[in-house]
Specification:
Blueprint (H helix, E strand, L loop, with lengths): L13 H8 L4 E4 L5 H4 L10 E6 L10 E7 L1 E10 L4 E2 L1 E3 L5 E7 L5 E10 L4 E9 L9 E4 L4 E3 L5 E5 L6 H6 L1 E5 L5 E7 L5 E7 L8 E6 L17 E7 L3 E6 L4 E6 L2 E7 L14 E4 L2 E9 L10 E9 L6 E4 L17 E3 L1 H10 L5 E5 L20 H5 L6
Parallel strand pairs: 11-17, 18-26, 24-25
Antiparallel strand pairs: 1-2, 2-3, 3-7, 4-5, 4-8, 6-7, 8-9, 10-12, 12-15, 13-16, 14-15, 16-17, 18-19, 19-20, 21-26, 22-23, 23-24
Length: 400
């Protein structure tokens, strides 16, 4: 960190101080001075207040709060503003001796500091200072879900995937705030995304209540990811609403998919799941509808299956990153309701798929059961965190 020493000088006149303060980390202010005051012979209670600001300089290290201290008097207010007019909030200590920002100084940012003071004798004054933080040598970015303004299903988590590794997980998690309209209980949990990147999700203890409004404020600007991760140089926010309580129950043993809305069965559909006994089996557990992708080209080589298929598939609804979908599969018509003969997806007729596609939304849970499957959907393979107990999920928070 670049630092310069702060020297204690004899009090200076307010007019002289105003000319010197902007480029300096230490500054003095006060009310009216007399010649005898300037020589140090006046009333000590009316000597100008000495104000010190850190960080300081033109290449200051980012990632620390801005601190303003007063000697020989007290601070009455402090304003710290960046070049775009955004303020760093903070509070003056009860004794008026210091002010500390709530947020950290961001990389590559010029700040101005304006302090109002009062001498021990009660005379008001002011002081100004400025500093600029060094730019980030590496920047970490975030991809987040769900998008703002969306309506989602009751199993949709808040999910952030990071471009670079996050070693300072606790520091990052402290900057993430989820606010709900009904005080929903939930927790952050760190997982490895299917892409191999670091990811942190916030899920409720149980499925969301319909109508809940959710806001994420990720106040990351000025936070260091840690070794090899880089700095965050912006904040992120998203708001969304939870829609109707819809649960999709898939029984691979009876080869049926049932849509349950608000506790009532809407419709049951004959389906065919993944072929038993090998890599073509389906996953079980709770998967979450990630996206409605429409018509998709599906090639078995992309998911590691040797006997390659290459099809354009309609009404495709993604359930995992590893390639499990629910979709129309007219080529498997003879197996619907009778046997599992797909390459891992949940197939149904064109007519059923068209109807079902219009009913569901991203965030709806698919609760999949069956005797012969690949195993349970892992947390990072889509939104598989619902397959962890609440205690296990809480244990993935960096703050516990």
């Amino acid at each position: 960190m670049h630092r310069r020493s702060v020297f204690a000088h004899a009090p200076v006149r307010a007019a002289v101080a105003a000319a010197l303060l902007a480029p300096l980390a230490a500054c003095s202010s006060g009310g009216t001075s007399t010649d005898s005051d300037a020589k140090g012979a006046g009333n000590a209670e009316n000597r100008p207040v000495t104000v010190t600001v850190t960080p300081r300089g033109r290449d200051a290290a980012p990632g620390e709060p801005v601190t303003v201290r007063a000697a020989g008097g007290r601070l009455t207010s402090v304003t710290v503003t960046d070049a775009e007019g955004h303020r760093l909030a903070g509070k003056v200590a009860a004794d008026g001796g210091s002010w500390v920002s709530d947020r950290k100084a961001a990389p590559g940012t010029a700040y101005t500091v304006a302090a109002a003071t009062r001498t021990e004798g009660g005379t008001a004054g002011s002081a100004k200072a400025a500093f600029t933080t060094a730019p980030a040598d590496k920047v970490n970015k975030v991809d987040w879900r769900p998008g703002t303004g969306t309506t989602v299903g009751v199993a949709q988590p808040v999910s952030l995937v990071f471009d670079n590794p996050v070693k300072n997980r606790a520091e990052v998690e402290k900057q993430l705030k989820v606010t709900t309209s009904d005080g929903t209980e939930g927790s952050w949990g760190w997982i490895r995304d299917w892409s191999g990147r670091d990811r942190v999700d916030w899920r409720p203890r149980t499925y969301w209540k319909s109508g809940t409004k959710v806001t994420l404020n990720a106040e990351l600007n000025g936070t260091d990811s840690g070794s090899d991760g880089g700095w965050f140089v912006r904040d992120y926010t998203t708001t969304f609403t939870v829609g109707a309580r819809q649960v999709v129950k898939v029984d691979l043993d009876s080869h049926r998919l049932t849509l349950v809305r608000d506790g009532r069965t809407v419709r049951s559909i004959p389906v065919s799941g993944g072929t038993p006994g090998g890599d073509k089996r389906s996953w079980r557990g709770t998967a979450v509808l990630m996206a409605k992708e429409g018509t998709v080209n599906m090639n078995s080589e992309t998911v590691g299956l040797g006997d390659a298929y290459d099809k354009m598939v309609d009404y495709s609804m993604r359930l995992t990153w590893s390639g499990m979908y629910a979709h129309a599969a007219p080529w498997n018509a003879r197996w619907f309701g009778n046997a599992n003969r797909s390459s891992g997806c949940i197939g149904m007729s064109d007519a059923d798929a068209a109807w079902f596609y219009e009913q569901v939304r991203p965030g709806d849970p698919f609760e999949i059961t069956g005797a012969d499957t690949k195993g349970v959907v892992e947390p990072g393979n889509g939104f598989g965190e619902w397959n962890l107990s609440w205690t296990d999920w809480q244990g993935r928070s960096a703050l516990r």
